[in-house]
Design brief:
The structure is a homodimer. By secondary structure, the first copy, chain A, is α/β, with parallel strands linked by helices. Chain A has 14 helices and 15 strands. Chain A folds into two domains: about 150 residues, Alpha-Beta Complex (Aspartate Aminotransferase, domain 1); about 240 residues, 3-Layer(aba) Sandwich (Aspartate Aminotransferase, domain 2). In chain A, the strands form four sheets. In chain A, strands 2-10-9-8-7-3-4 form a seven-stranded mixed beta sheet, sandwiched between helices. In chain A, α6 runs parallel beside α7, α8 packs parallel to α9 and α12 runs parallel beside α14. Chain A starts with 6 loop residues before the first helix and ends with a helix. In chain A, about 55% of the residues are buried. At the A-B interface, α2, α3, α4, α6 and α7 of A face α2, α3, α4, α6 and α7 of B.
Chain lengths: ~400, ~400
């Protein structure tokens, strides 16, 4: 039975990669450097309790929050985005140009609803975030990889591929990129916005990590250089408030927001209202600055522990990125080690019991690219656990290299 | 700029109907019989506050609730669906065959992701829920209307149209249908399940009103007669808990649930966890039976007030349905009155100030069908306001009929 649509077949491969990624993460005996979650110490449990207790007591407010809400999202929260998140970054937006999404991922799904016909090209970074590739594949888009270096997407290669492939969307994660932790330079940000305008291509700027920066200077988003409305800025509250609340937002021009509101209405009517209101109150009550400091302090310590441990315990010839923020570092191993194979052993071997994400899945071009790479997340474990886990993983890698000799 | 996908064009018409529907609903001077919301007196504000206060205090629980959750939905809530909602209706399900959705609407969207290619046929009731038609249109499905009578979808016409159009999905709202308030007979429920199996067609049973019944006897869902896994049961917590929480669920066979989990992952990762856990606790703590009684008592009174007032104040020759539950009655006016025109006057006329939903938008076949019909919701107003509003609306209709003479 069941004549599934073709898209269910095209999305199967990235869907299986994602299921594979997360399969070892629920084993409590394994130290996971796999997930993309923030430190649990940074989840504002007590504040959420206090806010709910207050708002549900205000006459009439509780009824409002449990009733149907606007498709575009709660006005309170859209105003928070404008005043507390965009204005400080030099982006002057209007709350009517913000739509609230069910987590950051829904932005990719809605953008595909708006723009993607089967076979349309989306240019992505090489490597890129596999979960977005899953979404693009569900819409039967063809993902084509653009070269990256330490300054992010290489704009010369991007321009060539825009000309060659006539893409509908260029998908960029500019800040502390997933999976590499790299940050797109300011010059390239400006250039990418200009390429969007010049070639009439949508630039989808997915920027969920930008607010957790531990070193270096803030850079303007690509959207700040957009003069024609071709750049669409997507962001999320998953890293700065709570991932389980599933709240994200998109900032775009009037026409795109209007169309996105239609697509959102037809997808799920609106995002759950209670988490939207709790999140808005969290900012309006002034909790964010102190919370943000805690977020950065905790993750800076974890990043430093991971980078130092890699330098100390991984074999000579290892390359790794130094992320100024976010949750990931990207490691390229020397020798012929295949990280997909290594992962099986590192999770099962009782002397290691460490998981990570193997690199191959992040490359849409296939053909074994990234098979000696891994994404390591420092968000989920305290510094001492990171040191122990990286030492064990480093020892395993060294033993593998010895076997090769 | 902006080369939108074709689906954004095909969905424009139903999207505009929906925007039209809701435009007059926010005017506080207008008594609205338009929306599909339950009485605000039935929103469990105090219970939600208490539950959040408790669960956020339990060691470790708050962190878990604010973290990423499973794509398929919280296990607690899926178990509540199985034990508290399906088992009492004679449906024996496994929690692994339940997926939690972002409101009831997301079920339609995910089902289209799974099954619909552009041009595929979905058979719908005539009339049917316009919001679902918006979703079907976004996926470029062709909606074809199946006749209804007082016992719901006419199964002879359904079988003919299955043979003629080879549809991917048959979309049915069997209980207290939106917009008519009609209930599909038990015999036809069984017949529709059998037709799904016989012709290898998915039956999408959208049943959000079934748990708010004020008179008559409960009927088994279509799914209870499904022997081959062709029926997919979609339901929602919007009517029995809170619409703004955006929580719904789907019960389907293993293969469909597995595919839906992929589509859900690519759409928004998962439904917001906090509302899922609050809702699960609401049932687990035993609040539902008393809450359910309140829901039924309040809405029964409102239904009776509306039906009695229509019979008393609407002109002779008016036809209306008698819904045993749900939120809507469907009215067919005598004479040549066009309800789309009437709506403009009834909202603006200072002696009336009443809104409803004009009938035409619920018919996918177009050509003016239902132009003398209206959907009246009795959920949103207390009985005395219903009586006053219906009297005013009845007087306006009578005056229109007089003008015609």
């Amino acid at each position: 039975m069941s004549k599934y649509a073709k898209r269910m077949k095209t999305m199967e491969e990235p869907a299986n990669i994602i299921k594979g990624l997360f399969s070892s993460m629920n084993d409590p005996d394994v130290t996971s450097f796999g997930g993309g979650a923030i430190a649990k110490e940074c989840l504002p449990v007590d504040i959420v309790r206090e806010i709910v207790s207050d708002i549900m007591t205000v006459e009439g407010r509780g009824y409002e929050i449990l009733s149907y809400g606007p498709v575009i999202g709660a006005k309170d929260l859209r105003e928070v985005v404008v005043k507390e998140l965009l204005a400080p970054k030099g982006v002057q937006a209007n709350a009517d140009n913000i739509i609230i999404t069910t987590g950051g991922m829904e932005a990719m799904s809605l953008m595909c609803q708006l723009f993607i016909e089967p076979g349309d090209v989306i240019l992505v970074e090489s490597p890129t975030f596999v979960h977005s590739v899953e979404t693009f594949s569900m819409f039967e888009a063809k993902c084509i990889a653009v070269e990256m270096d330490d300054d992010g997407m290489v704009t010369e290669d991007l321009e060539e591929k825009i000309i060659k492939y006539n893409p509908k969307i260029v998908y960029v994660i500019p800040t502390f990129q997933n999976p590499t932790g790299r940050t797109l330079s300011l010059e390239r940000r400006q250039k990418i916005a200009e390429l969007g305008s010049k070639y009439d291509v949508i630039i989808l700027e997915d920027d969920p990590y930008r607010d957790i920066r531990y070193s270096g200077n803030e850079l303007l988003p690509i959207k700040a250089f957009d003069k024609t409305g071709h750049t669409v800025l997507a962001n999320s509250f998953s890293k700065i408030f709570s991932p389980g609340s599933r709240i994200g937002y998109v900032y775009a021009n009037d026409d795109i927001i209007s169309k996105m509101t239609d697509a959102k209405s037809a997808s799920n009517s609106h995002t759950s209202l209670l988490p939207q209101i709790i999140c808005a109150e969290f900012f309006k009550r002034g909790y964010y600055p102190e919370h943000h400091k805690l977020l950065c302090d905790i993750h800076r310590e974890r990043r430093d522990a991971m980078i130092e441990s890699i330098d100390k315990f991984f074999p000579e010839g290892t390359k790794r990125t130094f992320p100024d923020g976010g949750l990931f570092t990207w490691v390229e191993l020397p020798g012929g080690i295949n990280t997909t194979e290594l992962l099986k052993e590192s999770t099962l071997n009782p002397d290691v019991k460490v998981s990570f994400v193997a690199g191959e899945g992040f490359f849409t071009e296939g053909n074994g690219k990234g098979s000696n790479c891994m994404r390591l997340s420092f968000g989920g474990n305290p510094a001492d656990k990171i040191r122990i886990g990286i030492e064990r993983l480093g020892n395993l890698i060294k033993s593998k290299l010895m076997e090769e000799l």
